[in-house]
Write a structure and sequence with these properties.
This protein has 13 helices and 18 strands. With about 475 residues, it is α+β, with helices and mostly antiparallel strands. The protein has 3 domains: about 220 residues, Rossmann fold (3-Layer(aba) Sandwich); about 55 residues, no CATH class; about 180 residues, Beta-Lactamase, CATH 3.30.450.40. The strands form 4 sheets. It has a 6-stranded mixed sheet with strand order 6-7-8-3-9-10, with helices on both faces. It has a 6-stranded antiparallel sheet with strand order 15-12-11-18-17-16, sandwiched between helices. It is globular.
């Protein structure tokens, strides 16, 4: 059985019977690891709360499997469901505090069913939980004396006082302002990290998505990739904007305006247009570049594993500088900076010719250049270098795989396998590479890898002064 505390497989769920039956979850599968913070997001009615209540043993699974904390919940009796619920802390949008009780008494109440827990221990556990959420001095206050954020923190303390294996939170920030909501989820984040508790948080609040280790998006009861969810929402909003403009709304608005009102409206439209450009510019941002670096790092790590190699490196071509630089390269958990001349060495041969290079002993190969190749090839061993081409057939990257002498030399099957793996990656990288080049030539956004990496366009040399790309003769 999987060690993950939450394993959902092919889960479907519906409400009602006969003609009134409505399915809300469709073949959902997910695994959530211990200590992980996962956000379930998606539009209202997409099935987020239903999935959370199934994971929390608050309702029975109908089809598929829900294994929580080592127990299969589908078909489980009430005693088994209750045993799981005792190990789960729940935080809901409504704090559900009893006004007649103090903050400490509200927290203590959650410990009433703990077997063998003496009243003095309940009181101490409640005080510790309130102190952990920063409300130790407010333990004697009633909910009416607390702010909305403080009441929600009491609810979190109530969930954590039982020392649960996991916390399930349903829209905990929905009724809170931006600052208070942020403090609540950061509190959950800190406590999860400190105690190693698994946290699953349902929200449609985009302001708090960054606390998650992973985001699962639900759309009409089906799990979707986060990228699909973002592009769907963005596309929907942009279509609404385009439709509004096609209706001639802007023309009607300006028809009867005087010069002053027109100037004010023009400022407003300009500001809205700048916001749209900011959205477009996100694809040139540090965040987007960082995401691609993570993709590249994951790709090279897996390639090395699949081919039994010591290391795999993705090099991108920086034409004006006449260099190849390692993209997404990491060593011991840290990024490593590697730049080599694009026209020299074994990898340079793959760039110049556009042909795959496969050698049994890289150090003994006549194309080996100690000043270039020695940074990646420290000892005799097999090497495989596959050029990555754009849609026009132009080389813009190279994947280099290096193996030690203990591994058999790379063969044609290894080359074919690596070529197939790089094909999909090439689509992602080329799109970013081309968009970045277009952005730099227009003088906006970040400087791309293909021009002058890692510096904003406003810094350094003007694009028109760039050295012409070298010819790989």
């Amino acid at each position: 059985m999987s060690e993950a505390p939450i394993v959902v497989e092919h889960l479907s769920h519906w409400y009602g019977e006969g003609e009134l039956r409505r399915q809300v979850l469709f073949d959902v599968s997910a695994e959530i690891r211990a200590g992980e913070i996962v956000i379930l997001t998606g539009p209202s009615g997409s099935g987020k709360t239903t999935l959370l209540t199934l994971i929390g043993a608050l309702r029975s699974a109908q089809e598929g499997s829900v294994c929580v904390l080592g127990r299969e919940l589908r078909g489980a009796d009430e005693a088994a469901l209750a045993a799981v619920r005792r190990r789960v802390g729940y935080v809901f949008q409504a704090h559900n505090l009893l006004d007649a009780l103090t903050a400490r008494q509200n927290v203590e109440m959650s410990l009433q069913l703990e077997p063998g827990l003496a009243p003095s221990k309940r009181e101490r556990r409640a005080a510790e939980a309130l102190a952990a959420v920063g409300l130790g001095e407010r333990a004697g206050d009633h909910p009416s004396q607390l702010s909305g954020g403080e009441r929600q923190r009491v609810a979190i303390a109530r969930a954590l006082a039982r020392r649960p294996a996991m916390v399930l939170a349903d829209e905990p920030t929905a009724s809170l302002d931006r600052e208070t909501g942020r403090s609540v989820v950061e509190l959950l984040h800190r406590l999860a990290r400190k105690d190693g508790v698994t946290v699953v948080l349902v929200t449609h609040d985009s302001r708090i998505l960054d606390i998650a280790d992973r985001i699962l998006a639900l759309e009409d009861g089906r799990l979707s990739s986060l990228m699909n969810a973002v592009t769907t929402d963005a596309g929907r909003l942009l279509r609404l904007l385009a439709e509004d403009l096609r209706k001639g709304e802007l023309v009607r608005r300006v028809a009867d305006l005087d010069a002053s009102a027109f100037a004010t409206l023009l400022d407003q439209v300009t500001a809205e247009t700048c916001r749209l450009l900011e959205i477009v510019d996100l694809v040139q941002s540090d965040a987007f570049e960082g995401a691609l670096e993570q993709v590249a790092h994951a790709f090279t790590a897996k390639v090395a594993e699949l081919l039994g190699a010591e290391r795999a490196t993705l090099f991108l071509l920086d034409e004006p500088a006449g260099e190849l630089f390692a993209f997404g390269a990491c060593e011991h958990g840290r990024s490593r900076e590697v730049r080599i001349p694009a026209g020299r060495g074994i990898v340079g041969h793959a760039v110049r010719t556009g042909e795959a290079v496969r050698v049994a002993d890289a150090v003994a190969d006549p194309r080996f250049d100690p000043a270039v190749d020695a940074r990646e090839i420290a000892a005799p061993g097999s090497l495989l270098a596959i050029p990555v081409t754009d849609s026009a057939g132009r080389v813009f990257a190279v994947v280099e795989v290096v193996a030690g002498p203990a591994r058999r030399p790379f063969d044609e099957r290894d080359a074919e396998r690596l070529t197939g793996l790089t094909a999909s990656l090439a689509v992602i990288l080329e799109s970013w590479w081309r968009m970045s080049c277009t952005c730099r030539s227009a003088g906006v956004g970040r400087t791309p890898a293909c021009c002058q990496p890692w510096r904003p366009c406003g810094e350094g040399k003007d694009p028109s002064d760039a050295t012409p790309p070298p010819r790989w003769a």
